[in-house]
């Protein structure tokens, strides 16, 4: 059976869709699902990871149950279905292909739009991008957008300006993933959302659903929830077709 979605957001972890595209998804066709790629439970008996311990959890199982529930609340605010793939989060997982991703993308039709993370300075996000773009590299594939993952890309000094893409193309600190992407896939800006106060309030509500993650994220990324911080704009690119032989 063909999945009913018109829009599919690939969120590597439980909080990435809210952080990166909470405003953009409200513009995109429904039905819409947020697919958490690292959405599976940790192996039974796994010791708590350093990240989850920093978030205040005593066990890996507790962290998973809480984060899954947080994501369900955020998806409800985003008016999105929650879809989970069976891959455990990075510290609990294994190398190799991400389970469930190729099959999910193969079942989509050409009138579906898939949002794929750029992977700025985040290996799990980059891993999702590489596998997703390979799976979508076929003539009848869904339309693909690559979105700037936040807060990472949002630290670019030119973020939320008309020059953001050009700055990523030149930045050796924040632009390496974008530069790798554009070497293989010419891109054009498809959506450049600079949030007004109403959009910001709605996004903030979705982000705050992921409360367990905010303290360590703020420690790593500074004024994460500030109105003027890295979440204040959202950016997505469409992959341009390369000209064929003789074109």
From TrEMBL:
Pfam families, A to Z: PIG-L
UniProt keyword Zinc present: yes
UniProt keyword Zinc present: yes
Example GO biological process: glycoside metabolic process
Keywords: Zinc
Family annotation (InterPro entries): GlcNAc_PI_deacetylase-related (IPR003737), LmbE-like_dom_sf (IPR024078)
Protein's name according to its UniProt entry: PIG-L family deacetylase
Organism, scientific name: Streptomyces albidoflavus
């Amino acid at each position: 059976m063909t999945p009913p979605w018109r829009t599919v957001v690939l969120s590597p972890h439980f909080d990435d869709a809210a952080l990166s595209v909470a405003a953009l998804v409200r513009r995109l066709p429904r039905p819409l699902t947020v697919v958490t790629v690292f959405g599976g439970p940790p192996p039974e008996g796994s010791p708590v990871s350093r990240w989850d311990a920093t978030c205040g959890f005593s066990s890996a199982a507790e962290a998973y149950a809480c984060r899954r529930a947080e994501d369900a609340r955020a998806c409800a605010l985003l008016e999105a279905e929650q879809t989970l793939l069976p891959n455990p989060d990075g510290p609990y997982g294994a190398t190799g292909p991400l389970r469930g991703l190729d099959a999910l993308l193969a079942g989509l039709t050409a009138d579906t739009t898939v949002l794929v993370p750029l992977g700025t300075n985040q290996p799990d996000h980059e891993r999702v991008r590489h596998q997703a773009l390979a799976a979508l590299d076929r003539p009848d594939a869904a339309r693909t957008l690559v979105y700037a993952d936040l807060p990472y890309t949002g630290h670019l000094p030119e973020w939320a300006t008309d020059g953001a893409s050009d700055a990523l193309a030149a930045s050796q600190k924040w632009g390496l993933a974008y530069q790798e992407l554009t070497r293989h896939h010419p891109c054009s800006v498809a959506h450049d959302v600079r949030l007004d106060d109403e959009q910001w309030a709605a996004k903030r509500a979705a982000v705050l659903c992921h409360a367990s993650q905010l303290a360590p994220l703020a420690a790593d990324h500074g004024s994460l929830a500030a109105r003027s911080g890295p979440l204040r704009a959202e950016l997505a690119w469409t992959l341009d077709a390369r000209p064929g032989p003789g074109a």
